[in-house]
């Protein structure tokens, strides 16, 4: 059973999974935040709805490139059975992350509260039942706090449409908060629109659009090199090179789809679910196929063994498990609302992928060690040289990956309030650059050439032990055929009994 068989069921599997997710998932919002019956939850002594958090750049001098947060038809609804009394105000609170300490307070150094308590009211710093807030010293006029309340018998209360101009670059947070315990089962509907000077793309995602545009260009350059070599030496192409062609093609589609995803997001403010799903799917297939190719190459498939034998089903099972776990994780992170996931919920999706990745790495290096030993024992020096370079590239990739994972964990744990949101795009971008770099190394090592077939498994023992045949990539001069003999070979040399020496040699071999 050959290696390409492992990839035959991948497209159909991922297509079915992606379509199922796209049809079953609700529309995804980001810069246009929709509120469809969002319920308030208890946080300390307040009732809260987290309505959005985004990095926003300050408005430019051009009026057409302003930054703002706009409220449209924000309506609060309560059940009829609780409408026989008026209510305390329901506030919309907008603040920049540096001003987070201006919301809430505590009496005598006790527990911090958002709603004014009796003790704080006695100190005269606030009115009991109201939200505690004070003006920022760094950013005058902030935080922005305004609201509405219910009158007797009112079932709905609508916030006036309002646009807040952003004059300072920062991470802005929007919360709907009330302190009235009588407002049970209160929900909020409507939408808020968040805009940066260059479009609706959130600040932390804005650099990714340009990044994926750049990656599309470099993939095209790699593709031109690879496909030109592929077309030039198509008669000498190995199955491994067909798989590398597949990875390059998937990579081209992935980065292009991510670019179009962010471009449409930036234009409309609503993330296109279909484009996002396809970008995620192409990326997942590319990562899975890449891992399977590396694993099977490290096992010596096509080099020291013609098939994977009994390992085929195990490799296929590992690949299938990884592609499902990775697809679910990427769909949840990119198509679903990440902020809705608690730490434990996200960990539930991340752990399987991390475990499978670790298993891939372990299996790859164990297999690679065995293949290197076989190549060295058979003195296949040309193949051995390529595999040693490949081993060095893999080792560097793993070491850099571990180091970057440590940095990523430090980055996330030390940036609890997303204050470094302007640099957050570097985290996903780095993994793209690293995987592309490894792909370039693989393309350089196994580029199609006139000598490609010399590095494929032939099953000829004489070739395996021939040192001169594996020393260089340069095509050797053609060897004379067994049927073509030199003049001296054509002339028979007779022994004393009249029988040619050639006939005597034939008799010996018989």
From the 3D coordinates, which CATH architecture of the largest domain would you assign? Up-down Bundle
**β-sheet strand percentage:** 5-15%
Number of domains: 2
- Rounded mean pLDDT is 81
CATH class of the largest domain: Mainly Alpha
For this structure, the CATH topology of the largest domain is: Rhopdopsin 7-helix transmembrane proteins
Question: Which key phrases capture this entry?
Answer:
510 residues; alpha+beta; Jelly Rolls; Rhopdopsin 7-helix transmembrane proteins; 5-stranded antiparallel beta sheet; 14% strand; disordered N terminus
Write a structural description.
This protein has 510 residues and is an alpha+beta fold. The chain has 2 domains: 32-195, Sandwich (Jelly Rolls); 202-458, Rhopdopsin 7-helix transmembrane proteins (Up-down Bundle). It contains 12 helices and 10 strands. The strands form 2 sheets. Strands 1, 4, 7, 8 and 10 form a 5-stranded antiparallel beta sheet that branches. A 5-stranded antiparallel beta sheet has the order 2-3-9-5-6, with no helix packed on it. Helix 1 (10-24) packs antiparallel against helix 5, helix 1 (10-24) runs parallel beside helix 6 (312-334) and helix 3 packs antiparallel against helix 4 (239-268).
């Amino acid at each position: 059973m050959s290696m390409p068989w492992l990839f035959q069921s991948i497209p159909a599997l991922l297509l079915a999974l992606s379509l199922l997710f796209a049809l079953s998932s609700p529309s995804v919002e980001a810069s246009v935040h929709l509120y469809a019956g969002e319920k308030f939850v208890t946080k300390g002594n307040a009732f809260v709805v987290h309505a959005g958090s985004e990095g926003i750049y300050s408005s430019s001098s051009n009026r057409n490139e302003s930054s703002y947060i706009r409220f449209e038809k924000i309506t609060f609804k309560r059940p009829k059975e609780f409408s026989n009394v008026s209510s305390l105000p329901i506030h919309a609170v907008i603040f920049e992350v540096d001003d987070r300490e201006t919301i809430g307070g505590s009496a005598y150094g006790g527990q911090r509260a958002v709603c004014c308590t009796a003790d704080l009211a006695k100190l005269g710093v606030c009115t009991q039942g109201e939200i505690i807030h004070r003006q920022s010293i760094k950013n005058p006029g902030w935080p922005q706090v305004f609201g509405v309340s219910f009158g007797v018998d009112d079932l709905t209360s609508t916030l006036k449409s309002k646009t807040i101009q952003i004059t300072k670059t920062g991470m802005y947070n929007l919360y709907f908060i009330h302190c009235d315990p009588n407002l049970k089962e209160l929900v909020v509907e409507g939408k808020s629109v968040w805009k940066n000077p260059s479009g609706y793309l959130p600040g932390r995602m804005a650099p990714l659009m340009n990044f994926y545009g750049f990656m599309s260009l470099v993939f095209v350059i790699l593709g031109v090199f690879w496909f030109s070599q592929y077309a030039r030496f198509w008669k000498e192409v190995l199955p491994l090179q067909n798989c590398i062609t597949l990875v390059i093609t998937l990579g081209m589609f992935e980065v292009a789809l991510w670019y179009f995803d962010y471009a449409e997001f930036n234009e409309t403010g609503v993330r296109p679910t279909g484009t996002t799903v396809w970008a995620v799917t192409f990326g997942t297939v590319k990562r899975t196929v890449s891992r399977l190719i590396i694993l099977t190459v490290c096992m010596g498939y096509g080099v020291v063994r013609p098939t994977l034998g009994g390992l085929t089903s195990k490799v296929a099972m590992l690949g299938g498990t990884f592609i499902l776990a990775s697809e679910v994780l990427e769909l949840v992170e990119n198509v679903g609302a990440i902020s809705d996931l608690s730490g434990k919920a996200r960990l539930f999706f991340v752990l399987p992928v991390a475990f499978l990745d670790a298993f891939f790495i372990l299996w790859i290096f164990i297999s690679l060690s065995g293949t290197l030993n076989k190549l060295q024992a058979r003195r296949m020096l040309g193949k051995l040289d390529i595999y040693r370079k490949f081993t060095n590239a893999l080792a560097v990739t793993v070491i850099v990956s571990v180091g970057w994972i440590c940095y990523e964990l430090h980055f996330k744990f030390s940036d609890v309030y997303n204050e470094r949101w302007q640099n957050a795009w570097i985290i996903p971008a780095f993994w793209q650059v690293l995987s592309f770099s490894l792909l370039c190394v693989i393309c350089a090592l196994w580029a199609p050439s006139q000598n490609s077939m010399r590095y494929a498994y032939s099953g000829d023992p004489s070739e395996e032990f021939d040192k001169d045949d594996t020393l260089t990539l340069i095509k050797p001069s053609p060897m004379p055929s067994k049927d073509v003999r030199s003049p001296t070979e054509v002339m028979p040399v007779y022994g004393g009994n009249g029988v040619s020496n050639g006939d005597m040699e034939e008799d010996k071999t018989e």
